[in-house]
Amino acid sequence: MSAESISVIKVGDLLLVTVPSDPDDETVSALQEQVLQAMARHQVKGLVLDISTVQTLDSFFARTIAESVQMVALMGGRTVLSGMRASVAITATQLGLTLGRAETALDVDRAIERLGAAPAQGQSR
Amino acid sequence: MIQTQQGEFHIGSESDIVLARKLVRDFATELGFSLTDVTRIVTAASELTRNIYHYAGSGLMRWRPLSEGGHAGLELIFEDQGPGIPDVDKALEAGFSTGKGLGLGLPGSKRLMDEMTIESHLGQGTVVGVRKWLK
User: What is the pLDDT of residues B37-57, one digit of tens each?
Assistant: First the structure.
């Protein structure tokens, strides 16, 4: 329904993905697909998934994110989740959510820093 | 103060999960819950609405304000005429799911709310009630 509100922007050798604030399940699934297509299209080493506007992270949303992180990893990339709100972090933990192997950062700046500062994955360019 | 009245909402499609979240968010905010509690309540509503949509296809969400012995709160009731839950105790164990979910919906919602009741009859349906009190 609101698949247009997902934005995937290439910044240097990273993708910056902005997640809409209250996406339906269809949009969440579309997000995963768009991210993977963009990973394949652009030669990037990782992506920042900005969830700073997300108000509700339920188990479906979290599972899709965790899956996406794993898929991106299979494609040789790293994902850093940025900007999780305090209320969402508290709720997600109580709900029992784990986000798999997702790395996290307080905001987009720190997420980019993290992806840039880390040792290169695989072969160097 | 229309928002603080009781109401009901029919769940029949996937996009109704988003609408249910919005209704519950407005209702809980209007009643004066903190942002964190609103997030807990909305997240539980999201899980329970999705359960209805996935397992029963359709159902009803009802909401009402509570007032007992000087305490105020809210109650949400999720009702469907779906297949019912074969083993409620099992369904409340984290990680147990007969569907494609994570198995966090019921046990997770119970942790997020103050009270939860489940009444389920095989072949007849399920009624899940949850309550949260204002601190």
Answer: 999 999 999 999 999 999 999
